[in-house]
Design brief:
195 residues, mainly alpha, Arc Repressor Mutant, subunit A, Tetracycline Repressor, domain 2, 2 domains, 9 helices, 0% strand
């Protein structure tokens, strides 16, 4: 369920911006376009973002909106591995359908050079809360190796996904991110599981 007020305004700005970036390109999208599409004001925009460039790190917010939806609809009967697979499929399908390779590449670039907040690594993100929940469940059910902590599992899984996205960017998106992940993820998850 969405929180009313300030978070909704920021969310509308982020969602509108990324839709416009995908549709028209980053360089062809102005702050005025974003303000109009988000039905907000320039004051609201500048309250949350000092510039259009500051939006580059906000893609993680868009990802987290997807995870919020997923948390509400994820079948509790799925085992932890199935939940991770579903989580991965949803993210990579969303990326392929709404985020251009150029924009994702720019996101990685800004996260590499930023001195401030690195949104992708923010531990309070919905992404990490969901991962933690699944990792704890997997540990309690004896699915994951006992020599790995919940943090080890979370870190490894997040690195796997970032690595897949980074490789997709390096390859200029010339393959299906979701399909390739469907091949690679089971091999990766096997390394986390008890034998």
């Amino acid at each position: 369920m969405k929180k009313p007020g300030k978070n909704q305004t920021k969310s509308r700005i982020v969602s509108a911006a990324w839709q416009l970036f995908y549709q028209y390109g980053y360089d062809n999208t102005t702050i005025d376009d974003i303000v109009e599409a988000s039905n907000t004001s320039k004051g609201s925009f500048y309250h949350y973002f000092e510039s259009k460039d500051a939006l580059m790190g906000s893609l993680s917010y868009l990802f987290d909106e997807k995870y919020e939806e997923l948390m509400e609809t994820l079948d509790p009967e799925l085992d932890p591995l199935q939940k991770l697979v579903r989580m991965n499929q949803e993210l990579f399908l969303m990326i392929e359908n709404t985020v251009s390779v150029t924009l994702l590449s720019q996101l990685f670039a800004t996260q590499l050079v930023t001195k401030g907040e690195k949104h992708l690594l923010e531990p309070d993100r919905t992404y990490y809360r969901l991962l933690r929940q699944i990792a704890i469940e997997g540990q309690q059910e004896g699915v994951f190796r006992g020599d790995l902590s919940v943090n080890d599992i979370m870190r490894a899984y997040a690195m796997f996904e970032r690595g897949m996205m980074y490789d997709w960017c390096l390859a200029s998106g010339n393959y299906s991110l979701m399909q390739y992940s469907q091949q690679m993820l089971p091999m990766f998850l096997e390394g986390l599981c008890r034998s």
